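User: Last request for today: this protein with 3-methyl-2-oxobutanoic acid, please.
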Amino acid sequence: MSAVRRKTTHSLRKQYERKEKIVWTTCYDATFARLVEMAEIDVILVGDSLGNVVQGHATTLPVTVEDIVYHTRAVARGCQRPHIVADLPFMSYQANEDDGLRAAGAMLKEGRAQSVKIEGGEYFAPMVHRMTQAGIAVCGHLGFTPQSVHKFGGYRIQGKTEDAADQMVKDAVALTEAGIHMLVLEMVPADLAKRITDTVDIATIGIGAGTDVDGQVLVLQDILGLNNDFKPKFVKHFASMESTVVDALKSYKKEVQEISFPSEDFSF
Ligand code: KIV
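Assistant: Here's the final one, the structure of the complex with 3-methyl-2-oxobutanoic acid:
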């Protein structure tokens, strides 16, 4: 019997070279990591979106390094095959490079991730270079970067003007030269995502960036349709689990109240 092998930077690179789309989802716990693995998803992002969907915050800003490490470790215990990317949360790397290096190290050492992801452009290229020199695999994230939501003035598409588009291409090139091995592009015009994809020699992963990218990422809770009230333009619900979960809980409540659960079958 062959051992299950985790997807690596090397095997993901081969997939990119074969022009096979690379499929990411977010995930934050062992139960869902097992299901994500059963669906043969390539990459799990333990995103700081857990601040929204797990912790109930309005933004990702309150998420800490400890939060991401905790959830990454849970995910790593729940699956053997997907490549695990841990997000570096707000202010874990922005103040100085040493902080960033230590936070990235914690994601691998304590969280058992294989890669980390940072938001931001060419300004962060020297830090990415230090991380990759230290042996850490890094993914980039450009476009709408949720940690900068207040700077952007809300959840707005990025790279719409010529100058902004040119800067995003420069950012992508600088990060690639610094050593990132994949690049998330969030909420950018499809033609700009294509331009960046055509320019850099690494896999681009879109979320609200059209189809001319090398892969896609969506938040797991959005894929599953766990919140019917949350549906930005780029989100497709591939299931309607909000009603499935609520119906199951209602049935459980009803049977408990009627004393039909637990019946003899479920009793000792
Ligand atoms: O935190 C996250 O889930 C992300 C994705 C939206 C790319 O960064």
